[in-house]
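Quick one: structure for this chain?
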Amino acid sequence: MVRGSKQLLTAAMLVVSIFAVSINANDNVYNVSALYEKKSTLKGKTVKVKGTVLKITRAIMRKDWITISDNSSFQGKDSIIFTSTSAVAQNLKIGDKVTAEGILELDLDLGFPGYQYPVIVQNSKFSK
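Got it. Here's what it folds into:
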């Protein structure tokens, strides 16, 4: 009977872990490293990241540029920029824990040296 209980418990744990993974996939929640790793697949799609605000650059090209990190890394990249015109973005501070959501875009070139973004998230919204 103990052996059967262990098998039942193992099967239940497997179902729970599969369900938990599908919840994250349905919510489009990714870590920073996954955005870089899966960038081709995610191009043009809505993505979410839960992380910490590292840097804020306000009112550049009528947008706020918010750098987010979640302690993950892919090939040395450990943060990603979200651009936004939302009022919530204007109230963010460095160190805030947020969920950032927007459209992942690739190879944005603003036409100035140093302003090329291989991966960036545009039209973003934030919640604390």
